[in-house]
Amino acid sequence: MSIRMREGYEGTGPGARTPDGCSVELYKRLPVGGEPDVVAAAVPAGASILELGSGAGRVTRPLAQRGFRVTAVDESPGMLEQIEGTGGVRTVCSPIEELDTGERYDVVMLASYLVHAGDPRVRHGLLRTCRRHVKDDGCVLIQREGLDWHTDVPRERRNSAGGIVRIRSATPVGDGVDAMLCEYEYPDATWTQTFLSRPLSHEEFERHLGEAGLVVDSFLTEDGTWVRALPAR
Fold first, then answer.
1. Inter-residue contact 30 to 54 (CB < 8 Å)
2. Between 20 and 30 A from 92 (CA), which of 19, 132, 152, 192?
3. pLDDT tens digits, residue range 118-167?
């Protein structure tokens, strides 16, 4: 089945592609990092979690294994197929901006730097979805880019699965948005992904949260890339 790419998004390499240029085959290989530890330290044990943009379940599975009740949302059926059948997890196939599960959750998680969407309408839609689904006494966990993410290029790191992840370039395309070119090199295959990302200062980030009815509660990591937000009172 042919997938229509979003404008400004593309990808190369083996496997089926999602509308934002991700390869399902690549995302099956990506190892989990410190995300489950960050989440577990910030929320009550056994909490219900709405994970927005779950991909192939890199973070979903470890959270379920820790006893969290996870609802994993992704717009790609191919990504969600990798999670289906995991105990403690249910899946919902939907664009995040259009999501309405009719439920509210202890925790809503928006990871993978999705808050930096190049289109401000998309970012607003993402944050409104977060607010719509979080309980009044719950929290929203947001992963944001580091402040030098667009200027410290090129750069690379090796992951625990034996892959090399490179940020090749950040090319301005207008209106404060950069086209980010990433490369993932493994011994048997190489993938690239190009996506649009908008740098956000702390002030801009907090303003956008406020427009969606959220306020910053605390920074969960020393580098400020993980933020705990609460519903505005």
1. no
2. 192
3. 999 999 999 999 999 999 999 999 999 999 999 999 999 999 999 999 99
